[in-house]
Amino acid sequence: MRELNVEALARVEGDGGITVTLDGKKVKSVTLDVHEGPRLIEQLVRGMTPEDDLTVIPRICAICTLSHRYSAIRGLEKALGVSAPEKALVTRELMMLGENVESNSLHTFLLALPDFLGYPSAIAMLNDYADDVKRALRLKKFGNHVMAITSGRIVHGENPIIGGFGKYPSRKALEEIKLKSHELIPDAVRDVELFASLKYPTFPEAEMVFMSVNAPKKKFGFAGDSILISNGKEANVEDYKKLTSERVVSHSFAKRSLYQDKPFTVGANARLINMGKRLDGQAGDLFKEHYSDGWLKNPLYNNLAQAIEMLWSLEQMPEVVDKIMGMEDPPNEKPTRTTGSGTGAVEAPRGTLYHHYDIKDGLIDGADIITPTAQNLDDIERHMRLTAERLLAEDKKDEEIRLGLEMVARAYDPCISCATHLVTLKRI
Amino acid sequence: MHKLRDTPCDTEADLKRLLKDVVGHGRLYVLGLGNTDRADDGAGIVVAENLKKPFPEFSFSEHDGVEGTVLEISEKDEVASVVFVDAADLKLSPGSIRVVKKEQIRETEITTHRVAVALMASILAKTGKESAVVCIQPGSVEFRGRMTQPVKKSVEAIVKALAELMSQGDSQAR
Questions:
Q1: Hey, which end of chain B has fewer CB within 10 Å, N or C?
Q2: B1 domain residue, yes or no
């Protein structure tokens, strides 16, 4: 028996571990052991007002902060019978586009790309790929800027509220976003070309099921009231429990999800597989050019999907900005009831994010939050197991197996305080 | 918070001496890092916010965007240095200060939540700019907690030392 350790699975967030137990060349088990303590946010917000809830829940995540806020707003507005004005809806679109650029630029370039280019980190890449790293940072900076303009600050902005916005972005700020987003499009095109030129190893391949929200009006987007499943079915977001079937496992503080007793995938690849035909502009053209059957089986294509999506987000911004500028600032809509239930779903950069609320007499009576990474954990384990089995069968060295496992885990862009931190191969 | 190899810096005089050694000539920029939701973990941000008043164009906090700020400084055609200020678990008494030169930055990893200071230092070095990290030992990182007295005192000392060096850098640049 021997063990193969990776001292910290870098470039993800959180404290956990992957244990691969091997019996000769057979993989006995693969577990994603999450050591990060439970955060009990859903319990914490019980008894709070919806407004206080909105201050607390974005703290779940500093990078998906606006996705958490927006998903919560959608759930709370349904529960309270609020219909936000059109200008609020379009401004929310803009903030989600900003978060998408911010997060996808970080993940694709600084977290995932080093694996493909054979570097231990983006820092090591700097000597040979300084322009690419700087391009990623420019995009991230701009994404952050859009988030700050729409939400009030870069992280945990308080400006998006139930029924509208505390304050709508100024015309000057919007015009700057329009100009800058247009300027950055060539950078994003280069990013797509770079990720399309990478060789995507086939070791994790298996048939997959993909889920994403169904953006309204047959357009691509990051929010919706129904869920598209790649098997052709569609479900209302209020049925999220049937779609996710959450369960607890003994080796993890993070809950797990299965759809019809099988793992499934959420993320940019799921969005493009379910809604990619709706992409327009250069993003649409490049998706058509680079899409292949491999996307349906290989989670590593999530990296290319994120690059295409980032381009689409930039291309959308001028149009969205024009829409916002074409509308007067409306008054915020007020709740029409104090008791009710509602589920919000948005596409965080790393996948579908649900926030369900039960409100009684104006206070939170129950909350249920299901994050994208919690939905992906079973799928990550499945593809890691396949990776280990195939690389062992090919007599690959431990270093190569280790890298393969890390690439698969990172491809999902895990963003939880319960992500992996240590890979252990136990041989018995 | 960062986990970094430290260099002793027990007095305000030590701090000035070490910083002067690191920052050399030209403009001095300050970039405060941390989380103000967690008591002393926000010390770096408080330092930067204090320095923004006298030096609005040269002091930035994590709330201004770390990567973008560093990228802009790196692309400026001027002699300049950047001092990052952050809370760090140095296993010392609360409020202890250490200066970490860029060559000593041990942190190498980037996460979804934070781009490594080591990467920022490398980007700055590419255009000949110096950098260092001033670390402050927190006494409490309790969520929604208040900054402890020893850390408050250290923040004041760091602000004073950096303000002096920034003034010098400002006059040199002119």
A1: C
A2: no
